[in-house]
Amino acid sequence: MAIDPETLDPDPFRQFDAWLADAIAAGMPSADAFALATAGIDGAPSVRMVLLRGHGPDGFSFYTNRHSRKGRDLAANPRGAALFHWPLLERQLRLSGTIEALPDGESEAYFAGRPRGHRISAWASEQGQPIANRSELLTRVADLEKRFPGERVPLPPGWGGYRLRPDRFEFWVSRADRLHDRVEYERTPDGWARRRLQP
């Protein structure tokens, strides 16, 4: 389906809602997964897939271990870029902007709603750090099952959420002969400005 600046919603967040709904309706697996790119103080880029865990006019939220590579990157350089890719619809969405830590209360509320196994795993894993073997990780899980025998598993230290606050969006649709449609939104003091980009 062709797109043009005038055919898209003036509000990029509402346009995102429409595209995400289309991807879910089309049966796209993990339609809410996106690639998140960060860079540390040395400027070296790093990218990984994360899951969208909330969105609205304030931005796009995800959760992680704050001592991970992404957490360390964001402590040094609180900016990032994201890419949603919905290949069945031949659509992509790029975002970039500042990234801020979510308040502890939001992180605690989200964490409490995760399945118990996910909560135990968050305690067991020092995300991205070397480990001798899988058995060591499984031993940690078994120890934590004993440490937290009931349903309540508290928020681990250093684990929490972030919010990407975009200042730029790009909605992309594949077209014949690689003459793709690209519409960029840029935040201005008066709202959002839209323009077509060359493919």
Structure description:
The protein is an alpha+beta fold. It has a single domain (12-112, 159-197), classed as Electron Transport, Fmn-binding Protein, Chain A (Pnp Oxidase, Chain A, Roll), CATH 2.30.110.10. It is built from five helices and nine strands, in the order H-E-E-E-E-H-E-E-H-H-H-E-E-E. The protein has helices spanning 12-25, 69-76, 104-112, 116-124, 134-147, and strands spanning 33-39, 45-51, 54-56, 59-65, 79-86, 91-101, 159-173, 181-188, 191-197. Helix 4 packs across helix 5 (134-147). The longest helix has 14 residues, at 12-25.
In short:
This protein has helices at residues 12-25, 69-76, 104-112, 116-124, 134-147, and strands spanning 33-39, 45-51, 54-56, 59-65, 79-86, 91-101, 159-173, 181-188, 191-197.
List keywords for this structure.
199 residues; alpha+beta; Pnp Oxidase, Chain A; 9-stranded antiparallel beta sheet; 5 helices; elongated
CATH H level: which superfamily? Answer: Electron Transport, Fmn-binding Protein, Chain A
Fraction in beta strands: 35-45%
Number of strands: 9
CATH class: Mainly Beta
How do the helices and strands line up, and which of them pair or pack?
Elements: H1 12-25, E1 33-39, E2 45-51, E3 54-56, E4 59-65, H2 69-76, E5 79-86, E6 91-101, H3 104-112, H4 116-124, H5 134-147, E7 159-173, E8 181-188, E9 191-197
Helix pairs in contact: 4-5
